[in-house]
Amino acid sequence: MLSRATENTVCGLPCQVTPDPFGVDLISKEDKDKKKKKKKEPRDRDRLADGGSKEAREEISTEIDAVLSLPGSNLQKGDFDSGVRRYLGALRGCQNGKQKVKDAMAMLHHYTAQKMRSAVKNWPAYLLTLLKRFEPGLLSKGAGKGDRKGDDSRRPPSAAEAAAFGLRGVERILATPAKVPVKLSEGPPAALAAAAADLQGLVKASQLAPKQPETQVLPESWTEGRQPLLQEVSHALSAEIIRSPFTGEALDLQEALVAPVATALGTRNAAPEPKSFLWRYAQGVAACRDLMDCPRALAAAQHAKVDDLADLSEDASSLQGVQAISAAAQEKGGAAAAVAGVVIEEVGLEILAETLRNPDVSPAINAVTL
């Protein structure tokens, strides 16, 4: 065998030995390249798993907080687990990434606003599925609870299709809810026919029916029907007439007691932080009380010919009724928008009366009023 020296002798004559093209030097170089690549890939994967750079992660967190604070939002912070944030981070890294993240968050809000929390077993997985349909092929695998096999038969719009249907970024929803949104970041839509069936329930603000006056939907004597419950509240407070300690004038129970409860019911994820005791109590009691126990709330919806409450299951809670009428008012307008506040007030009055019926509450109230 020939030596690997650069010069050798064959038959007594000097000659140059050509290095083996598959020699040790070349293999060593390939091995070094592979090792460098392997060292780099984990760092890239870790960076993507965290949602990208620090700036990108902060932007994504801001967008998440913004969509959670939208009226009617069903989403919670825990729904945005590591898998969902990782996909949003990959979306942020695309061209026009900032706008795409805003559009994706707007799509998530619109597509989940009508859903009850109990209707989806795994919210992170559901959000990740929506994002993969919105912008497919960004990541081969996910991370966290949001990763799952399988598919959802309901297909949300892609970024291009969202542009055609006028879905808006979170900031534009907050700033100009009644304006037709500008075109999004991508080009013309590719499959509008397929997306139309899925977006049938998503009505643009510019297409909402104008809000009807309450007097055209409900009879003029509607508020008089609250008197029995208001009298029960007065009796529970050990006084036929509740007077202001400052002016001595009679207090309007509707304004002083019922309205704050109704406001707490109608304010969901947008409640102030920290959440008030009234907010927690009203939401908790409404979630435990059947909607069927609030007949005037159901009657108000029937007067307005709004079927959203009647379509709920028989064991639906009062809180689910509040959520349903709020969503109908936001998406349909017209009569639904006219009676939404009335329905929520009726539920609030029922909750107030039910609270004062509690024997553990009455002694404390009597002690204060004496």
Automatic annotation (TrEMBL):
Residue spans of biased composition, Basic and acidic residues class: 41-57, 144-155
Protein name (Swiss-Prot/TrEMBL): Uncharacterized protein
Source superkingdom: Eukaryota
Region (Disordered): 1-57, 139-158
